[in-house]
Design a protein that fits this description.
The structure holds two protein chains of two kinds. By secondary structure, chain A is α+β, with helices and mostly antiparallel strands. Helices cover 34% and strands 27% of the residues of chain A. In chain A, α2 packs antiparallel against α7. The N and C termini of chain A lie far apart (50 Å). By secondary structure, chain B is of the alpha+beta class. In chain B, strands 1-2 form a two-stranded antiparallel ribbon. Chain B is built from two helices and four strands; from the N terminus they run ααββββ. The chains are: A alpha+beta, B alpha+beta. At the A-B interface, β1, β2, α2, β8 and β10 of A face β3 and β4 of B.
Chain lengths: 314, 106
């Protein structure tokens, strides 16, 4: 009897997992091993694939691709695209223009997303683009969207997270209360119930390569991580982050930003804002007010932080 | 003896047909078996005895060109191929205690 009890205590719940390449990253879905789990995972990936095809700016024929290719003209879109653009516009206001969904021309100016040797852009070019992006480059009228000519939208900072939110809603509707969705490591959504109160998540160091920095317990919320350790461009032996402060036009000097939210979409956008914001202290206050009781975060400004960061609760 | 062989044969056929309904499992076994076989073959070879294969070309004086009478394969450039997209989707079983790694990279 004693042996039986010990064996029972050691038994852990089993989960079915699958990883597929969607949104140009590896997405892992982990749900309890039970009848129908295989089909459920397949349906989740179908949902992700469908959102990737319809809304990713890199997917040929997606709403965002059509808006970009028809810049200067009105393009008919669906309700989701309108909702996304409206929410992103709010984030542009909250961040005092530090975040902008139309950042693509600035990224190209700095040499990202193109195969050419990099040189420092001229101050005039940077100033011209930041001035251009201060204005309203996206117009919305009923179910139509018009992007001002010479601009380009990029969905990289939010579309994968939006898709994760949809998967979470789908799993909840199917009665799943315990699951994990890891989208490329930078967006991790934990669903938990009483039987499995949290998932363990290893956070990487902002600059050092090896191993994890510290571990957190994630429960019914999403972790979003932005950093510059692996995504940067080197110009004249100096590394520049791929996350640009659109208000200044310069790559951010921050090293890492992590958020905990109940929505992956807002989590990813806010972590991008926090990462990009290396100048305006008021922006973080704006975020605290706009997401009161809904956001925990930390930002690493120095290459070698003194200790493990403490999450600020809004 | 004959009926035993027949039984064994039917068992093999049944296993194979069962395997067809779990194609991923069957292909996984075949992959594993082939890899083990290749590794064993490679290990059994003495590196000092390995030589490049030589092939003799015949000269066609009419066409003024060389011809290779041996069976050979030409290297074909396929350009950029996303081999990840050809990988079969594999489901695995894990327990809930495994820590997940956050990362800034995709």
């Amino acid at each position: 009897m004693e042996i039986l009890q010990k064996t029972h205590q050691r038994a852990t719940k089993q989960y079915l997992t699958e990883t597929r390449f969607v949104f140009y990253c590896h997405i892992k879905i982990k749900i309890p091993l039970q009848p129908g789990a295989e089909t459920l995972i397949d349906q989740c990936f179908e949902l992700l694939k469908s959102i990737d095809e319809q809304y990713n700016s890199y997917s040929q024929g997606s709403y965002f691709d059509r808006i970009n290719k028809n810049a200067g003209n009105w393009v008919e879109v669906d309700e989701t695209t309108i909702w996304l653009l409206n929410e992103l516009d709010k984030m542009k206001s909250i961040s005092n223009g530090i975040y902008n969904v139309a950042v693509m021309p600035l990224l190209r100016l700095w040499g990202f997303y193109q195969n050419r040797s990099c040189s420092l852009p001229s101050f005039d070019q940077i100033a011209l683009l930041t001035e251009q992006l201060k204005g309203n480059v996206v117009s919305i009228k009923d179910n139509q969207v018009k992007l001002t000519r010479g601009n380009e939208l990029i969905t990289g900072s939010f579309i994968k997270a939006y898709a994760v939110d949809q998967v979470v809603a789908f799993l909840k509707a199917k009665g799943v209360t315990d699951a994990l969705i890891n989208a490329g490591g930078s967006t991790i959504y934990a669903m938990n119930d009483q039987g499995h109160p949290y998932w363990k998540i290893n956070i990487p160091h902002p600059t050092l390569e090896d191993g994890s920095w510290f571990q957190i317990h994630l429960s019914n919320e999403c972790l979003s991580l932005s950093g510059r350790k692996s995504s940067f461009i080197t110009i004249d032996d100096k590394q520049y982050s791929h996350i640009i402060n659109v208000a200044t036009g310069w790559p951010s000097l921050n090293y890492q930003a992590v958020t905990l939210t109940s929505s992956a979409f807002y989590g990813d956008v806010i972590s991008t804002v926090l990462m990009a914001n290396d100048t305006d202290k008021k922006v973080n206050e704006n975020l605290k007010q706009a997401f009161k009781d809904k956001l925990k975060y930390y930002v690493i400004n120095d290459a070698m932080p003194a200790g493990i960061p403490v999450f600020i609760e809004c | 003896m004959k009926s035993k062989l027949k039984g064994l044969f039917l068992f093999i056929i049944a296993t194979f047909l069962l395997g067809l309904s779990r194609k991923d499992l069957l292909y996984g076994w075949i992959d594993d078996w082939y890899m083990r076989k290749k590794i064993a073959e490679t290990k059994s070879q003495n590196p000092n005895e390995l030589r490049f294969e030589t092939q003799k070309l015949d000269y066609d004086s009419l066409q003024k060109s060389f011809k290779n009478p041996n069976l050979y394969f030409e290297v074909v450039r396929l350009g950029h191929i996303d081999f990840n997209s050809y990988k079969r989707n594999v489901k695995k079983v894990e327990d809930g205690d495994i820590a997940e790694n956050a990362s800034e990279s995709n």
